[in-house]
Amino acid sequence: MEDRSVLMERYEIGRQLGQGTFGKVYYARNLSSGHSVAIKMIDKEIIMKVSLVEQIKREISIMRLVRHPNILQLFEVMATKSKIYFSLEYAKSGKLFHKMARAKLNEESARKYFQQLISAVNYCHN
């Protein structure tokens, strides 16, 4: 069995799910509940260099308020001297972009995804 790290005595960190400009996202398991989550790890040094501190703070405050079935829920925010960690709802089906890139969607599936996206955007704007 491969070694797995534990984050702040709360989450067992597993495989990497994705990577962006400012950090990485990992699959994790909440040690007390056993629930699957996604842990978004952001490097503080990088966001300080590009002056995104206020944007990250705004993202956290908005995500704490948002409750919608088509938007991942933010469970917890943790930090160390070098990293910020977001514990997020785990999307079992993966990224919509990857799903669309792998196979051509039929009209019914495309309509379903589009309606979900519009519903989420409308919720946020309201």
From TrEMBL:
Domain Protein kinase: start-end pairs: 11-126
InterPro entries reported for this sequence: Kinase-like_dom_sf (IPR011009), Prot_kinase_dom (IPR000719), Protein_kinase_ATP_BS (IPR017441)
Catalytically driven reaction(s): L-seryl-[protein] + ATP = O-phospho-L-seryl-[protein] + ADP + H(+); L-threonyl-[protein] + ATP = O-phospho-L-threonyl-[protein] + ADP + H(+)
Residues given in the record as ATP binding sites: K49
Keyword Cell membrane: no
Keywords: ATP-binding, Kinase, Manganese, Nucleotide-binding, Serine/threonine-protein kinase, Transferase
Matches recorded under Pfam families: Pkinase
Family in the record: Belongs to the protein kinase superfamily. CAMK Ser/Thr protein kinase family. SNF1 subfamily.
Protein name listed in UniProt: non-specific serine/threonine protein kinase
